[in-house]
Amino acid sequence: MSDLSAFPITKRWPAKHPELLQLYSLPTPNGVKVSIMLEEIGLPYEVHLVDFGKDDQKTAEFLSLNPNGKIPAILDPNGPGGRPLALFESGAILQYLAEKTGKLLSQDAARRYQTIQWVHFQMGGIGPMFGQVGFFHKFDGKDFEDKRPRDRYVAEAKRLLGVMETHLSGRQWFMDDDYTIADISMLGWVRNLIGFYGAGDLVEFTQFKSVGAWLERGLARPAVQRGLKIPQRL
């Protein structure tokens, strides 16, 4: 039996199955990256809901795992060398799980780094910029009289969608015929932009035909559909 008692997070979220990878998350665009990945690779795990409504992410127990106070985070009892590994940042977790299982990341060095570059593209661009569009279009920012901040982020979101469109033209996935962690990193964000944020018309999403077709292919995957609902909100 794995012993995770040295990790304070297990005091607030006890592990019923400590031999399994522990996922601490919420079904947001960043959170579902890891749940989708886990469903795709078939690695058994136990999930714990980090409830932002209760400020779970600000508790000492959660901050002991992720000092940045963001989801997702994992605790793998079977980390490198057979020792437990605590890890945060969704991009790092995707890469770790791909390397751990040998799935969804090429073993060829060139293709491996080409895949990772698209994950960084999502982390540095797609996530932050789409999130700002959501703030200024759906949340508190929508009430600002000055629309210049919103327009700035809308323009950048459209530019990024254009980058995706150009690359995906004639391709099934970001790495040609290979579905990888690059696709997983972006599916939830594009879905959120036009769905939950309701910004499809704002960014003129229908003009990005290749992105739309890629999104449909991704959302049609059973593992993606399962991962989008994990963990269940209370």
TrEMBL record:
GST N-terminal domain location: 18-105
Top-level division of the source organism's lineage: Bacteria
Keywords: Transferase
GO MF term (any one): transferase activity
Keyword Flavoprotein attributed: no
Annotated GST C-terminal domain residues: 108-234
Gene3D superfamilies xrefs: 1.20.1050.10, Glutaredoxin
PANTHER family to which the protein is assigned, alphabetical: DISULFIDE-BOND OXIDOREDUCTASE YFCG (PTHR44051:SF19), GLUTATHIONE S-TRANSFERASE-RELATED (PTHR44051)
Protein name, entry field: Glutathione S-transferase
Organism of origin: Bradyrhizobium shewense
